[in-house]
Amino acid sequence: MFVPQRILFEKETLKYDVGKNIYNKFKDNENVEIINLTSNRVKQHIPGEEIYEYYREGKNTLVVGIKKGFKFQSCKPSAHYQLPLISGCVGNCQYCYLNTNLGDKPYIKVNANVEDILSQAQKYINERIPKITIFEGAATSDPVPVEPYTELLKKTIEFFANSEYGKFRFVTKYNDIDGLLNIKHNGKTEIRFTLNTDKVISDCEKRTASINNRIDASVKVAEAGYPLGYIIAPIFIYDGWKQDYMKLLIDLNKRLPKNLAYPITFEVISHRYTTRAKNVITQVFPNNTLPMNDSERTYKYGQFGYGKFVYTKENILEIKEFFEHSIKEVFPDSEIKYII
Ligand code: SF4
């Protein structure tokens, strides 16, 4: 569970249960500074002149806000819409896309008016009936480390449990999921865990749960009957990568219960970066060890008008062949959604 150093409450947020719960949880904790904002200017309350320090202070800051404006962003290809419950993440993953996308907002912001957000989701669902509408809860965040006191996922899962035409999914690198195990979900929420090798986690994913804790949490989720998936990402090619990723699959298989309610899904994503991301990462993590030598990569133009440095064609082919073969061998009943 994430314990922030400071919590900023935007105006009116203490009227909502989510705001009250967070306030009551931390009000007597002398290590947590509580700030009630009179204007909704957040930045000036987070120390740090330089991006390096501001990023670190931001990652220790929780902002409780209210989602205004109810146009949901699309979320292709993983879902139809982003569900805007939370933005930002407490993790310090060096390669994280949020470093670029939320660079000036590294703090975690939770939206207290979850009922409004869910009723807007219902409107989007109604527009598409009889088609199913899928919402992604982790498009701009990892919502799990704050779940023990926000209960946003719990409320959302219970909402979708009763939804005929709506589904929910989210992905995490954390294990604070115990509050989700004994609630009604009706199989309408898919929980995915992002996994990687010990080396990648210890080199590049500071302040995330260990691989053991992620796998333990995923076992609990499986036993609770949720649809379960794994994202193995980002794949890095390094000395011994195949052995390490194979070990990961075998360890996972040993610990997962058999006879699952739904087939497990796998998504596999190789490491890639943009020039903009590289510039931000170099400032925020000057000692990072990410392989970002442009000359060793292929430049690929993307659908959003900017290009990315991906592994070479030969490397991607090797990654595809390796994971297709290994996943089928270790998890013959699983579904591989894509390997990119
Ligand atoms: S856990 Fe996910 S969202 Fe959080 S910093 Fe790491 S990659 Fe980013």
Keywords:
340 residues, alpha/beta, Rossmann fold, seven-stranded parallel β-sheet, five-stranded mixed β-sheet, 16 strands, 34% helix, globular, binds iron/sulfur cluster
Brief account:
Helices cover 34% and strands 21% of the residues. By secondary structure, it is of the alpha/beta class.
Question: How does this structure look, described?
Answer:
The strands form four sheets. This protein has a seven-stranded parallel sheet with strand order 4-8-9-10-12-13-16. It has a five-stranded mixed sheet with strand order 2-1-3-7-5, with helices on one face. A two-stranded antiparallel sheet has the order 6-11. The protein is an alpha/beta fold. The mean pLDDT is 95. The radius of gyration is 20 Å and the shape is globular. It has eleven helices and 16 strands. It has a domain at 6-226: Rossmann fold. Iron/sulfur cluster binds at residues 89, 91, 93, 96, 98, 142, 173, 208. Residues 89, 91, 93, 96, 98, 142, 173, 208 line the site of iron/sulfur cluster (SF4).
Topology record:
Blueprint: E1 6-9, H1 17-26, E2 33-36, H2 51-58, E3 61-65, E4 81-82, E5 86-87, E6 92-93, H3 98-101, E7 108-111, H4 114-128, E8 133-136, H5 147-150, H6 152-161, E9 166-172, E10 189-195, H7 198-204, E11 205-206, H8 211-223, E12 228-235, H9 241-255, E13 265-270, H10 275-284, E14 298-301, E15 307-310, H11 313-330, E16 335-339
Parallel strand pairs: 1-2, 1-3, 3-7, 4-8, 8-9, 9-10, 10-12, 12-13, 13-16
Antiparallel strand pairs: 5-7, 6-11, 14-15
Helix pairs in contact: 9-11
Residues 89, 91, 93, 96, 98, 142, 173, 208 line the site of iron/sulfur cluster.
